Each structure stands twice: as structure tokens, then as C-alpha cells.
Amino acid sequence: MSGRLPFDPTRARGRAEPSKPKDDAPLSVSQLASSIDAALRRGLPQRVRVRGEVSGLRERTHLYFDLKDGSAVVNSVMFASAWRKSKVPVENGAEVIASGRVEFYAPGGKVSLIVDRLEPVGRGALEAQLRALVEELRGLGWLDDERKRGLPVFPRRIAVITSRSGAALQDVIDTARRRCPAVGLLTIDARVQGDGAAREVAQALRWVSDEAGELGVDSVLVTRGGGSMEDLWAFNERVVAQAIVECSIPVVAAIGHETDTTVAELVADVRAATPTQAAMRLTPDREALERELSSLWRRATGRVRDAVMGGGRDRLDAMARRHASALRVANARLVRRVDALAVRLERGRPASVQARRAARVEELASRLGRVGRRALYDRRLALPGLESTLAASASRLISAEDERLAGLERELRAVGPESVLARGFSVTTTVDGRAVRTTGDIGPGTAVRTRVADGSFESVVGGVPTSDPGRAKNETPPAPRRRSRRGGASRVVDPSQMDLFSSGEGE
Length: 507
Prior knowledge:
The protein is about 45% helix and about 20% strand. It has about 500 residues and is an alpha/beta fold. Helix 5 runs parallel beside helix 6.
């Protein structure tokens, strides 16, 4: 051995001083691992950036992969916390720049690159950045179909945001004029590629959104012709996507050719493959509108004709139904009044008079119904004056029957019990209300109640007169004296002198 001492891991930075082995003593595995770790720390900077191709990708709790080039492979790991923050998608074959620190994992005996940041390289970097932005916007809901709005059927004016010198603007103008010249176009010049293009497009969108009502603009078209991914990159910027989402009116995007897809098209309310197709989506077809108007005119004319021809009969039937209902209501009111009078007659008038008057009322009601129906269905009445004529006829009939019923009421009152009593007659009933119609209805000792014009009094029958013609009046046994009350005073009543008046018909 030379005079130079072997490597001593106890001298590594940040390590505790282990006991020194003898000069010829072998190192333990742990001592060797510590020496390797210390050497790596001394020989490499704290952070390194490594460019290589991703290989052997394994997604577990953490992200494990290898970085390789033509002659070497480095084991790499990206812990979950850093992986969640990364916006760059990782896949096998992708060329990336990995930033982190080199560590020796003693339990596994492996040297690994602990990655905390990834950067894509070249065109792959742009594609990765685009995919990352798309995923971010998808998470915000900007790509959801439920958020997107429909286009106006007939816009007053369309704002077109594009380069004034581009061919896309001329395609839009020609198509819109050919399809529907009535739709106005408002062109807004903005750069559509290069530095500052995204900012100009976003500013134009915000200005149109704020002034749409003042300008009469109902929709916006953001467009440009084809180009490379770098040429179209302004429409992949987040600032443009946000301006489209926040626009107060619907936005149509037509960027590049049919195979190109930008973020602006993904978040727009409608995407069109070309500027010409966008103009066709936004403007109605004049010839189709003319055909539709002709069809609507024919349908409207037919409906008016049907209404004029069939409306008179429908109106007459409707009025007939209304007046029939009114007459039924009036007739029901008369019937209720007649019923009320019938109840009163039942309590106090002769049965025969009640029957005759009830029959008379029924006849009047029948006549009223016939007159109403005849007036309703008489087609000779003039249509414009039918409603007023029927109303006047119904009013006259009701008034006439009201007067007739009032007269009947007066007649019934004239022959009612109160009028008969006022002429000197009286009504005698038993105390429980049964009418005394013949002398056979009572006997000696029967308590009776006698009603006269101004009140009633009670008495007890002492004897009942007989129909024996040979019996003289002076042979009638004297009647017992009975006190009765009338208005609080008492007097003696001789039953032989009482008039027995039944509830039959009077004079």
C-alpha cells in the first residue's frame, strides 16, 4: 500500500465521526454507503438539471422513471407532492429536462435523481404545455357543453376579430353578403400571430363584450387562416381563452384549418373548421328565409279564413250556452222563491189553494223555459245584436214573473188564516197542535187551545153538543166554570158557545 491513507467516510460532511478502523481492516457496508453518499455530495452541486428521454415510466404513490440517452441511464423519482404541482404530462419517449438533486439510497443501494421539476423540450414542449392548459381549463369547466350558448337565429350585427390584411376576413365578408346582406359586419383589426397577438385579441374581445348593446352586436367571430403550431400559438394562450369565456355574447372561433385545434376553439360557444363555415353558421340563408316566410303566410291565411268562416257559428253557440246558463240560474232562483212560498202556504193556507197555486207556478216555470229556449235557438236573430236581445228578453220575462208572483202572494195572504181570523173566526186545536175539525175530535175534559185574531187561550171541554133535534137548548146541562188565561186575565168560558173552526177552506 502507498503511504496515502484510504478514504475515511467519517470525514464526510454532515456525518457523525464513526470509530476509525484499523489501516488494514475492511469497511462495513454502511461505511461504504456513507462514503459514497459523502463523495456524491462533495462532487456534485446541490441541484442539477439533466436532459434525457423518459423510459420505464411507473406511476405508483410517486412517479418512478429512468432518464436515458444513447449511452447511459439514470434512475429517477418524482415524489407525489411535486408530481401534483407539475403541469407537464410525462410519458415514455418524451424528451424532458429534469431538475433536482442526486441522492444515494443506502437501503436499496441505488443512486437516484430526485426530480422536483420537469420541462418539455422542443415541439414536444409546446404540445405538453398545450395539453397541460387544456386539462386546467377542463377542470375549471370552461370546456363543458352546458356552459356554451346558442347562436342568434337572425343577428343584427356580427363583430369579426382578425387581421385586416388576412384572407380570412375577405372570405367572411363575401359569404355573409351572399347569404344575407341584411346582417351587418363590424370588423376589428388585431394581430393574429407573433408577440402581443394574444393580448390584442383578448382586448378586442373585452371591448366588444362591453359595447355589444351600444353597437347592436349579437355575436363575435374570432378567426384567422392556417399556419404552423407556432403561428397559431396566440390562440392557445390562457388570456384569450378567458376573454372568450367571459364575453357577454356568443363567440364563434375558426382558427387555422380543419385539422388544427386551438384552446380558443375548445372554449368558444361554437367551433367552425374554416372562416367561410363560420360565416355560414352565423348568418341565415336568405333563400331559406323566403321559403319559410311564404309557408308561414299560407298557413296564416288559411287560419284566418277558417276563423272567419267558422267563427260566427262558434260565437252563436257560445252565446247560446251562456244565456241558457243564465236562464237556468234565473229559473232556479224563481223555483227557490216558489219553494219558500210553498212552505209558508203549507203552514197557513188551505190545501186546495196551495195545490192550485203550485200548479200555476209550475205552468209559469214551464212557459218561461219554453220562451227562453225559443229565444236562444231562433237563428233568425241578427248575430251582432243577439246577446243584447236575449239579455233584454230574459230580463222582461223575469220581471213579469216577479210581478205575477207578487200578485199571487197578495191573493194568498187575502185568503190566509190571519185574514179569516180578522173577520171574526177562530181556530181550535188540541194542546199538542192537532186541528179540531168535528165534535168527534174532542170529548169532555179535553184540553184545547183557541186562536183568535189577536191571540189565543186555553180551555177544557165540559160537554159536547149532540145532533138530537128534540133536545131543547134549555135542557143543556150547565157547563162547568173554567178559568182561562188570555193576556194574563181570567174569564169563564162556556164551550157550548165556542166556534169550532177547522183548517179547511174558509168562506
